[in-house]
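Re-running Catalase to confirm reproducibility after the cluster update. Everything else is unchanged from the original entry.
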Amino acid sequence: MDNKSNKSEVAGTDTLDKQNQSAKTQQLDAFRSDATDQALTTNQGVKIADNQNSLRAGVRGSTLLEDFILREKITHFDHERIPERIVHARGVGAHGYFQAYAGNEKYTKAGFLTDPDIQTPIFVRFSTVQGPRGSADTVRDIRGFAIKFYTQEGNYDLVGNNAPVFFVQDGIKFPDFVHAVKPEPHTEVPTGGSAHDTFWDFVSLVPESAHAVMWAMSDRAIPRNLRSIQGFGVHTFRLINAEGKAIFVKYHWTPKQGLSQLVWDEAQKIAGKDPDFHRRDLYDAIEAGNYPEWELGIQIVQEQDEMKFDFDLLDPTKIIPEELVPVTPIGKFVLNRNVDNFFAEIEQVAFCPGHIVPGIDFTNDPLLQARLFSYTDTQLSRLGGPNFHQLPINKPVCPFHNNQRDAMHQTTIHKGQASYQPNSIDNNWPVETAPAAKNGGFESYQERIDGKKIRARSESFSDHFSHARLYYKSLAPHEQKHVVDAYIFELSKVQRKHIREREVQEVLANIDLDLAQQVGKNLGIEVPNSAQNMKSSTVEKSAKFTMEAFIPEDIKARKIAVLVHDKVNQENIAAIQQWAKAENVVAHILTPTPAPVLNSKQAKLDSNGMQKAEPSIAYDAVIVVDGDNYEVVKQDGVTKHYILEAYKHLKPIVFLGDKQKLLDALQLVTDEGTLSTDSFAAIQDKFKDLIRHHRIWAREKNAEAIPA
Ligand code: HDE
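Result of re-run:
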């Protein structure tokens, strides 16, 4: 399919949506296998008469080697697993489309970024970094955020994270960092987390990690779901326009859903009760038609301004404060289709920062440069050879031809005798395409290079603390407290005293003395009264680091637990259901057992789940409709625990009916997040607002008194 046929003739999202289904969907259709109405066969197409019994020498005799059906089935099964990714092994993904806003030609000539009529098919994979494939979703970790754009000029992969900075400055340190954060070699513990000696040993010895570690200790590393995380390209990239003019850019993806986090106690509990929490949420939201959406923005720096900052643009441990360079929105993407098969799509997708298209180029960031090698290399062992681009999920939607031939898992039957160039046998096809303003061949940006061949780091990479401080100082007070708590928790798990001390005295003290003293006090570590390395950043506080800057406008797809028992007030139930429908939120009627309860009108009210099996940690807010049922609730430990846990996790709670007795029995201190009323309709707007803000941060002190 070419650009033209992918263009909208009638302006309108529906038309564009339909056209978007076309390119990648049609291509995937060609590979999909649907066994409905089909006979069971071997891989050679022989129909199988008995799939229940192997071939035996007599009904009680030994199995025969000649049973080719058994051997084929077991052999295939034995090889079902492929090596998991060395990092980012645990992930989930979905399909969607990207659409550029108008007016980007001045920045780049890339077709998918400049033509607002094209909906470019995309595939996004979110991941954690540390844990293996089967690890829990809600561990404290940075999240991977990788997008493959199937553009008309080739595949473009933007392989980013939900933090804008990385732990090391040079790719040569990446294996050291990964060995340190991965489970320890003698025990293979811990799974999915960084709270152990080797991680803190490494990061306390390598202060360039200070800023990224600060992000990992912040609420960004325990997101509520994957629909509400920001994405960043981390490195500085280049965009090049049709005139050949280049600019430096940093990529930002901002979720329309806003940002939201878990509280730490909740994150740990979910890791046990529902380790698939994030992947289930993404799947369910897309199935329900609540398509998550992100805006793509760029921070633009003109070439001549490369050196004007007090940090180096090529240093991936630094951000550009938005106060110095605002984010310019250039497009949006929507995820609107779940995969059919996890393995074929999510497991086999192969990203590579080196997959770029004309109009985009790299910079000399030494971390990025090493990545350009690593990703293709890793696919060779993961996907078994160099033909992984032929797998349906990785295949470009535009035509691709060259003289690369053979190798493992070749699925293309190449025609023609000449697999070399130049040739006169096949008229020299396929031929090169000269670079051009549009649809031309790829041309690297002609950057002037003049330097000695040297193993050394630029002096401009030497400040490691000022941006960590900038991030910490920019957080809201409750977020700063969470950072302090996270350092205390993680370092409490470190067995070696000297590692804890080094982190507090030599890293945290150089970031912020107060932070170091708070952490140090709790760990019994002395902190110096003055720091040695206090270079400050020109911007001391930046507005877009606190998650409070990203409160969504609506509460679409939020989940509300509605706790009920027999005799529950049906008028309130009806009002809740009507409101939920209007706001597009999921309201689950949770009953003591899966059986329906009898409402106040003696009618059956169906259950969406039982309270014991659908715990409060799976919901954003709770409504207790049972005020008038006080005596029953008082006897029900599950319901009481439900309410207390939701309170502890700072969630909005509505008490309907005679709430006071219940509040007294639970010994809850009421606050702005505990709404009490007889009629749900009277407080629904206030409730919506609380859910939009997600947590009642002012409750944190009182919540500490509730047992975990
Ligand atoms: Fe990766 N990284 N990385 N990384 N990375 C991989 O590639 C690597 C880095 C990121 O959903 C691997 O296919 C090196 C930064 C994501 O499939 C591997 C260096 C950022 C994903 C690899 C880095 C990332 C990966 C493992 C330092 C944020 C998951 C399997 C030079 C900008 C992609 C694979 C997916 C995956 C190498 C640093 C993000 C081993 C050598 C910085 C989101 O090739």
